[in-house]
UniProtKB/TrEMBL annotation:
This is Thiamine pyrimidine synthase. InterPro entries: Bact_solute-bd_prot1 (IPR050490). It comes from the Eukaryota. It comes from Ditylum brightwellii. The keyword Translocase does not apply. The lineage of its organism: Eukaryota, Sar, Stramenopiles, Ochrophyta, Bacillariophyta. Residues 1-32 form the signal peptide. Keywords: Signal, Transport. Belongs to the bacterial solute-binding protein 1 family.
């Protein structure tokens, strides 16, 4: 979370920006606007900080004691939070926070959703370099990292707050890319809690069922793909095999062909120090030069990524859904049991692989009879690496691996 000043007319107003919601720290936002409090515990509005049973019930939820010393400390304090996407999960969390601290957090949503949030942020926080801009209505924001660039000067630096609370925040446990995305001029201007990436899931029951046939036909073990190229090959080979026991041929891996999935194929090729495919310096962009707009796609690395993505889509659910007038979607394809695997963002992947998940195949669309004792039908893995550019054995130290361990 971060704060800023929005010009001379509202310099006393502090603003908070959340890369994503961190409700536990909103107490600091409320505290930042409170008058000085006396040290005595006073019963206000029926909230008694001396009531041990009440405080334990409402301030020690979810196995954390972070809010325990904030019981009834912010009664009648109001905070306005601006968000871009409605989520029902906010309601119980805000209610829990109110019962513990006494603070009232009012959440408002931008009309127009995600597409309108950046402009809404500029209107309220103000634009860098313009001290007269900004309305100063909201105290905190749920934002995406790219929206911070034009308003960070108006957001409070959270660096000192992080120092004081790092035993809870553990800022260095956050991945470096996310930390960098919210840091400007040597100060942390927002608190990242969530970062989306692309992960891979596969059906353990499918892999078990087809293991013998796969070995017989291709002379290789059916194992979890470690490179993008291996994932594409496995998807192609499993395409047309029966994955749900209905006797009909099914698909390879499933996906929703969004631009970010295509970029997940392209970026590893152009980010890796390649030996044969390094023909273009991408500068700050992977598709065109940011200064001259010259295309950067005419190189072996980009061509290889396009080829692999094209092959992957051809072996996926798109081969059936698109010709039949349906949206090619992992969310509708995976529950049918016709997918050997899937690539997805992590939140959706959980709902694809969790038993009873919103997009998970029910037992009747799986082949759990092929699972060994203790195995689970849906497995999650990191997204594979760039094909053929993994370090060769002579550049690794495999001698330090324990039995069964993989180097990458």
């Amino acid at each position: 979370m971060t704060s800023r000043t929005s010009g001379a007319t509202s310099s006393s107003v502090r603003r908070w920006s959340l890369f994503t919601a961190l409700i536990l720290l909103l107490s600091n936002s409320a505290y930042a606007q409170e008058p000085d409090q006396c040290t005595e515990n006073i019963v206000v509005g029926g909230c008694d900080p001396n009531d041990e049973e009440y405080c334990k019930q409402h301030c020690e939820l979810f196995g954390t004691t972070y809010l325990r010393d904030k019981c009834c400390k912010h009664v009648a304090i109001n905070t306005n939070l601006l968000a871009f996407e409605e989520a029902d999960l906010w309601k119980p969390r805000l209610a829990n926070f109110h019962k513990c601290t006494g603070a009232n957090i009012h959440i408002a949503y931008v009309e127009g959703g995600e597409d309108a949030m950046e402009d809404a942020l500029k209107f309220d926080v103000g634009v860098n370099g313009d001290p007269t801009s900004g309305q100063g209505i909201y105290d905190a924001y749920i934002v995406q990292a790219p929206w911070l660039t034009s308003v960070f000067e108006g957001l409070e630096s959270l660096s000192e707050r992080i120092k004081l609370n790092d035993n809870v925040i553990r800022f260095n446990d956050i991945n470096q890319a996310s930390r960098s995305a919210v840091s400007f001029d040597g100060q942390v201007r927002a608190l990242p809690l969530d970062a989306d990436y692309i992960a891979m899931g596969y059906r353990q029951d499918v892999f078990n069922k087809h293991a013998s046939r796969y070995l017989e036909e291709f002379g290789e073990e059916l194992t979890v793909p470690r490179t993008i190229e291996e994932m594409v090959i496995i998807s192609e080979r499993l395409n047309g095999w029966d994955h749900n026991g209905d006797g009909e041929g099914d698909w390879g891996f499933c996906l929703t062909p969004q631009t970010n999935y295509f970029q997940a194929f392209v970026a590893p090729h152009l980010q890796t120090q390649l030996k044969d495919d390094k023909d273009a310096d991408t500068g700050q962009n992977i598709f065109f030069d940011v200064d001259t707009f010259e295309p950067l796609i005419y190189n072996d690395g980009f061509r290889k990524a396009v080829e692999l993505y094209w092959r992957f889509v051809k072996s996926s659910n798109c081969q059936y859904q698109t010709p039949n007038g349906q949206k090619c979607s992992r969310k509708t394809a995976f529950p049918t049991g016709r997918c050997a695997g899937v690539i997805s963002m992590p939140g959706t992947l959980t709902n694809l692989l969790r038993e009873g998940g919103k997009y998970a195949p029910p037992p009747e669309n799986r082949m759990d009879e092929f699972l060994e004792e203790g195995q689970y039908w849906g497995r999650r893995e990191v997204f594979p690496a760039a094909p053929k550019y993994a370090p060769p054995p002579e550049n690794r130290m495999d001698e330090f691996l324990e039995e069964g361990q993989y180097w990458g």
